[in-house]
What does this fold into?
Amino acid sequence: MHSLLPAFFAGLVQGIVEWLPVSSKTIIILVFRASGQTNFAVNYVMGLLANFGSFFAALAYFRKDIFSALRGLRAPFADTVDSLKLRYLFFATLATGVIGVPIYLVVRHTFARSSGTVAMVIIGLLLLVTSFVNLRREKLAAAKAPVVSQPGDLPSLAGINEEDDKSQIPRTGTSIIVGLLQGFAALPGISRSAMTVTPLLLKGLSPKEALRFSFLLDVVALLGAGVVPLVIGKGGLSAVNQIGILPVVVMIVVAAIVSFLMIGTVLRFAARLRGSVATFIIGAVTLVAALVVK
It folds into this structure.
């Protein structure tokens, strides 16, 4: 691809949309498709590689929680905040890999052999699934949300500390469920945050803590999403060769910069976003485009 513009917009999308209950990789797929890149397998891999940019921002933003989890290595089976967070990240990430890696392989294989119309229909339908999941999440959050009078009253998503309530940290069973559902976010059209926040709310976490632990898990998920296409199969290197190294670098750098600048603001906005409406509109438009545009 000769133009760097699609890569720039893909990085911009990743830097903003990653923190919202909308599938960033799906919008990146559509960005590259609109630019003339008709190979949906390549576009799908680009949507995953863009996660590298947001990973560095998430690592910096949640560094206190990450350091806390690493301290848990000293006593991984203890009943402390550090150890509980370590076990949450470990079991959730393990479960994600069990589901996510096979899904990645199936999707890349399917998209490599599917027509543009078929790929667009699949994406559109999965976006509608995310819309319904988001609707459930919004209803659960609304039922538990505290009264907020001013935007400044919204709860901070800064790292938790030893004074936090240990009961809010997901235990092993919940961690596995959240991880398994996060694995389904490897499907184009499925929002990672929608899939993880919803079960956390169902397990009794407050909206503040559900969002916090969803995005804490995202630190590891972002790294995994970027690494998997490069180390499993030839999908990652093949996609980079087709798009070009420079556009890929531009996409990742832009995603990192925008994520650093926007993560705090966007996360606060995410607590209020009607993701069900956004994903329904995008899904409907995608389905119409698949049937009309040849």
